[in-house]
Write a structure and sequence with these properties.
Keywords: Membrane, Transmembrane, Transmembrane helix. This is Zinc ribbon domain-containing protein. Residues 70-92 form the Putative zinc-ribbon domain. The chain crosses the membrane at residues 6-26. This protein is 53% helix and 6% strand. The chain has 93 residues and is mainly alpha-helical. The chain has 2 domains: 2-48; 54-93, no CATH class. The protein has a two-stranded antiparallel ribbon with strand order 1-2. Strand 1 and strand 2 (77-79) form a beta hairpin. Bound molecules: zinc ion (ZN). The site of zinc ion has 8 residues, from loops. Zinc ion (ZN) binds at residues 71, 73-74, 76, 85, 87-88, 90.
Length: 93
């Protein structure tokens, strides 16, 4: 019985030491430094990025402005000839 308890405690200590050795090796590895550098670069890029402009819509292109229009109700792009907005059902005629 005592032998089993001693063995269990021994294994616990062994795995605790093993875990800490591996964790320390990972934290001080070049890969960890590279990852920290990449994270920092991404954070800087995200902070300096200008707010995204809305994507161009057919209504903003003069040639297509005659064919397409924006629904005054929901802003969905609809054909200028459409009588009803397919998105919200607003009567456009
Ligand atoms: Zn609509």
């Amino acid at each position: 019985m005592l032998a089993i308890v001693v063995w269990l405690i021994g294994m616990l200590v062994f795995f605790f030491v093993l875990f800490n050795v591996i964790q320390h090796a990972l934290n001080t590895s070049n890969m960890a430094k590279d990852l920290a550098e990449i994270k920092e670069l991404l954070r800087e890029r995200a902070a300096s990025r200008a707010p995204a402009s809305p994507p161009p819509v057919p209504g903003d292109i003069p040639e297509l402005r005659k064919i397409y229009d924006r629904c005054p109700g929901c802003g969905h792009i609809v054909e200028a000839r459409a009588a009803v907005c397919p998105e919200c059902g607003l009567n456009l005629s």
